[in-house]
Design goal:
Elements lengths: L1 H15 L8 H10 L6 H7 L5 H15 L3 E3 L5 E3 L6 E10 L2 E6 L12 E3 L13 E9 L2 E10 L6 E7 L5 E5 L8 E5 L8 E7 L6 E9 L6 H10 L7 H11 L9 E2 L6 E4 L8 E7 L9 E8 L1 H4 L5 H9 L3 E2 L4 E2 L4 H7 L7 E11 L5 E12 L2 E4 H8 L8 H22 L9 E5 L5 E6 L4 H23 L6 E3 L5 H12 L13 H11 L5 H11 L4 E3 L23 H13 L19 H5 L1 H31 L6 E10 L2 E6 L3 E7 L8 E4 L4 E4 L5 E3 L3 E10 L4 E5 L41
């Protein structure tokens, strides 16, 4: 009681010294609520023209208002209404509700109150924001909640640090980043219980140049099994834990009756699934046989059966919202982050051999020239005869391995594929034969090997069946004027083509810009090069000239495949776009089945919300796809670095993949993983950077290092934590103390591969087509 009386007297004393004309509580509250910038003490004083002693009185008033629960203080010491959020503040996007991004204040200090969840209202070009992004936003109350209007996207680098704790001389702890683009370690000011060698998440503390790190989460041993994937998951903010509600719904959905009597029964057909040997799920299976229609002599009929995921994952369900938030499954060498819970992705929706499964069947009829004459879609029940690895199917067809299904299943598939190949060769899609790395681990998660995946006819066979089904799905929906989530790949931009023309000129190769550029244009270019040593770097440059594919409800065609209409239909277990295409087919062709009982939504076709938000969803899942690709690539780089760590000091066959003024990047042939050769290690002379020719050239020797060049390099360093490598020339000499690098020589420069540089390595053999 005495304490309360004392506080009242203190409040009264402060109130009495406030000058005439001083703002009231209501006026201050109104200013804070309507200000279009962070409202701190300085901004409030300026708004009311307060000076000297008035500022002291304002400070006392603001403290009183905070004590009374009227206002609270947020980031940058700006005030806001208690229980609300500042008018302008920093938010972090943490979730997506259907198609609306959800954000929370980056700092929330209101005790006993949960941080509010604000709906982010994007304007103009959407799709620039995704989960994990930080934004400066203007906020306002709307109805029963809050909304945020983004003003500026903020850098992610300032929000959290992911690295490994290291100990320097004297016991001082430092954070070594896992991102190889960050070249500086950060001193740790608060390690908590983290110790040397721990993989941790930390937040930056302080202001430049005195930034330190405060450890917030300890993730464990960076070299333990699956840690490389864990690094990528945390770095890119990939959702990887299903909520209890989603898991429970998956169990409920997986118990739905198949309704065999209302599905087309295809269980009598020897349908087979052909997948990678390490596949975790099987969402497609194929069958073919000669067409028995006399009018289609020499033709074939085929079925591409795809897991009927839309039957289990319905619009508006918790499963659906989670799948949309993820966009796709993410595949790492040591684990998979699935789009759907394992109850569905690797069990009920996976087309296992010998088990009845719900499928969406695409029936195709091909003529003798390989043209698809007709198609139809049905909901079916299938029983896969066998799940075969690509290598085993190829060995069987080559006569190297006996297989009971060779005659009834594989030979008809290969015969039908011969027709599909005719059609593919006629349309001439882009033929860039680029290697794909595969990391093989043992049962303990240790690396056994890193190698380029062998390209077999079996791979191309499945690709062509899938492409045919995808085209049929797009055209079937167009025929009904139904919504389509297209897979779009636009032609190269003129800027990219000009850059390619300039690059090819360095090899005395002409490339006319006036022509109509088609995929065949690039194929003819590659054919002209033949098996020349510069072929790999030219193919790489052609790839860089291409645009990035994306998902959208507006059709712009697929340039790379030389197709006018294309939609992803064949992988609904791992891609949300395919699930939308399945739903659209169900609605367009009346394939709905009896409504399930219980809490599961009635329909499995597109909902009104699905149709309304196709554009926004296309942008989101395109972003998620790029996020997954980057995470997968970085993880493989870490495994490659870990694999090569035992070979530091060895000479390796390498190829230059990039050139900058500070050095060039090279990759070990057959393994991948870029490593830097610093210009300071190239010898006791000056080098100038030829930007147009993408090369470094010695002023005295004329030695030239250019993209695509093969040479031997010594591995100087391999860092598994960030996936970086560093190379040196085998006979690198120490540089002079007075050496100055990267001086550009004026005037014209020679480009391409000069005659005085001998490329090391044999010509690439022709790949099987």
């Amino acid at each position: 009681m005495a304490s309360t009386e004392k506080k009242k007297k203190s409040d009264s004393a402060r109130t009495k010294v406030r000058p005439a004309g001083f703002p009231t509580r209501e006026q201050v509250m109104d200013f804070i609520a309507t200000s279009d910038q962070p409202a701190g003490k300085r901004e409030i004083a300026k708004a009311f023209g307060l000076k000297g002693q008035e500022k002291i009185a304002l400070k006392a008033l603001l403290k009183d208002m905070a004590d009374e629960g009227l206002i609270d203080i947020g980031p940058a010491r700006a005030f806001h209404k208690m229980g609300g959020v500042p008018k302008v503040t920093v938010l972090r996007i943490v979730d997506v509700d259907d198609t609306t991004l959800i954000a929370t204040p980056e700092r929330w200090e209101a005790e006993g109150q949960p941080a509010p969840r604000l709906r982010v209202m994007e304007r103009g070009k959407r799709g620039a924001l995704t989960i994990g992004d930080r934004i400066l936003a203007r906020t306002e109350e709307a109805g029963r909640g809050w909304v945020a209007h983004p003003m500026k996207k903020l850098a992610k680098a300032s929000e959290e640090l992911l690295g490994v704790v290291e100990e320097a001389d004297g016991g001082k702890l430092w954070l070594r980043p896992v991102d190889k683009r960050i070249r500086r370690d950060t001193p740790i000011s608060d390690a908590g219980t983290a110790k040397k060698g721990d993989l941790v998440l930390a937040e930056p503390v302080g202001r430049p140049p005195r930034i330190t790190a405060r450890v917030t989460d300890i993730l464990g041993d960076p070299f333990a099994p699956r840690s490389f994937s864990l690094i990528a998951i945390h770095k890119h903010g990939i959702p990887h834990v299903f909520s209890e509600r989603v898991e429970e719904e998956a169990v409920t959905a997986s118990s739905l009756a198949l309704h065999e009597e209302k599905r087309e029964d295809l269980r009598h057909l020897p349908i087979v699934a052909i997948d990678p040997v390490d596949a975790r799920d099987h969402d497609d299976a194929v069958w073919a046989a000669p067409d028995d229609d006399p009018a289609n002599e020499g033709g074939y009929k085929a079925i591409v059966a795809i897991a009927d995921v839309s039957y289990y994952v319905r619009p508006g369900s918790a499963l659906d919202r989670e799948a949309r938030k993820r966009g796709n499954s993410v595949y790492f060498p040591d684990l998979v982050v699935p789009m759907l819970p394992h109850q569905l992705s690797s069990d009920m929706c996976s087309l296992r051999a010998g088990e009845d499964r719900a499928a969406m069947a695409c029936h195709l009829v091909l003529d003798a020239a390989g043209k698809v004459k007709s198609w139809r879609f049905s909901r079916a029940v299938i029983r896969v005869a066998a799940v075969l690895a690509y290598e085993d199917a190829q060995a069987a067809i080559d006569g190297e391995k006996p297989l009971d299904l060779l005659e009834p299943a594989l030979k008809p598939l290969w015969a039908c594929w011969a027709l599909l190949r005719k059609a593919r060769d006629k349309r001439e899609p882009l033929a860039l034969d680029l290697p794909e790395r595969r990391v093989v681990l043992d049962e303990y998660g240790k690396i056994v090997s890193v190698a380029v995946r062998e390209r077999l006819d079996a791979h191309m066979l499945i690709e062509d069946y899938m492409i045919a089904a995808n085209v049929a799905a797009a055209k079937a929906l167009e025929a009904k004027k139904a919504p389509v989530m297209y897979r779009v790949h636009e032609p190269p931009s003129r800027d990219k083509l000009v850059a390619l023309k300039d690059y090819l000129a360095t090899f005395d190769i002409e490339f006319a810009l006036g022509q109509v550029v088609k995929p065949a244009t690039f194929n003819r270019l590659i054919a002209r090069i033949g098996e020349a040593e510069e072929k790999p770097q030219i193919m790489e440059q052609i790839l860089r000239s291409q645009t990035q594919a994306y998902y959208a409800p507006s059709n712009m065609g697929h340039f790379g495949l030389a197709l006018g209409s294309y939609a992803h239909f064949t992988s609904p277990i791992r891609r949300y776009a395919d699930l939308l295409v399945h739903r659209a087919l169900v609605g367009a062709y009346g394939l709905e089945l009896p409504a399930p009982k219980g809490d599961i939504p009635d329909r499995s076709s597109l909902s009104g919300e699905d149709m309304e938000n196709m554009g926004r969803v296309g942008e989101m899942i395109s972003q998620h796809e790029r996020r997954a690709m980057e995470a997968e690539r970085e993880t493989i780089d870490r495994y490659v670095a870990a694999f090569l760590a035992a070979h530091v000091g060895d000479l390796m066959e390498a190829r230059i993949t990039g050139v900058q003024s500070f050095g060039f990047f090279a990759t070990v042939e057959g393994l991948g993983g870029d490593g830097l050769v610093p210009v300071s290690t190239l010898g006791d002379e000056r080098f100038f950077f030829d930007e147009a020719g993408r090369a470094l050239e010695g002023v005295e020797s004329g030695d030239r290092y250019t993209v695509g060049q093969r040479l031997q390099l010594r591995l100087a360093e391999a860092d598994p934590i960030n996936g970086s490598l560093r190379f040196e020339l085998p006979d690198a000499l120490p540089q002079r103390p007075s050496f100055k690098k990267d001086r550009v020589r004026p005037g014209s420069v020679r480009r391409g591969r000069p005659t005085n540089i001998r490329h090391i390595g044999s010509k690439r053999g022709k790949h099987r087509r």
